[in-house]
Predict the 3D structure of the following.
Amino acid sequence: MELKDKHVKVIDIAFKYGYQSPDAFSRAFQSFHGVIPTLARNPEQNLKAYPRMYFQLTIQGGVEMKYRIVEKEPFKVVGVKYTVEMINQILSPTYEDMIAAISDTQMKEMESISNKESYGIVHVTVNYSEDSEGNATFDQYIGAVTTNEDTYGYSTIEIPTFLWAIFEVDGDWQQVEETWKRIYSEWLPSSSYELAEGPEMLVSKDQKSEIWIAVRKKG
C-alpha cells in the first residue's frame, strides 16, 4: 500500500520494514509478488495482500462460583418423568417441550407438595448412557422433593445418600447453562472432587437456581 504513494522512496520503505538494503527488499518483494517494487506502483499491477496478524491472550476463570459441599440423606422426588434422547446434541423432547406439556395446575400441585430441601420445582437427570457415537439417553424428572406418601399419580424416584456440590446461580436460563459448563470445564478439573455415579439436579425457586452435582473425593 505504501508503494502506491509515488512520493515515498523505495529505499525508505525498505529501511522502514527492516531490510538492510534496497536490493534485499527488491529480491524479497519480487520473490513474493513476482514483480520488483517499482512496478508495484502501477495501479493495474496485481499484488498479494494479507490482513494484519494479531495475537490475543484469552484468560479463562477468575469469575467467582458460589458453592457448598453437603452430604444429604436419602430423599424422594415426585413428578413427571420423561425418557429423553440426545442425538447430535439435540434433545428430544426438548426442555421447552417438557415444560410446556406440564399444565399450570400440575405445576402448582407439585410446588404445593414440596416440603423438604430442595424446595420448589426440581429437575433430576438420572440413568444417563451414551453410545460410541456420542448419542445419549437419560431419564428426566420434573417435580418436587417431598415426604408425602401420596404421589398424586406422578412418577417417583428415590435418591440415596450422596455428597453434593451445590452451585448457586443468580440469573436466567443462559446463566444456568453457563454455570453448568464452568462446573465441568473449570471447577471439576481444579477441585479435589470428581463426579460420582449419581443424579444431577437443577432447583428453581423465586428467580434463584441451584445446580446439584453428586461428587466424591478424588483418590
The chain is about 25% helix and 35% strand. The chain has two domains: 2-41, 67-217. The longest strand covers residues 75-87. The chain has a mean pLDDT of 87.
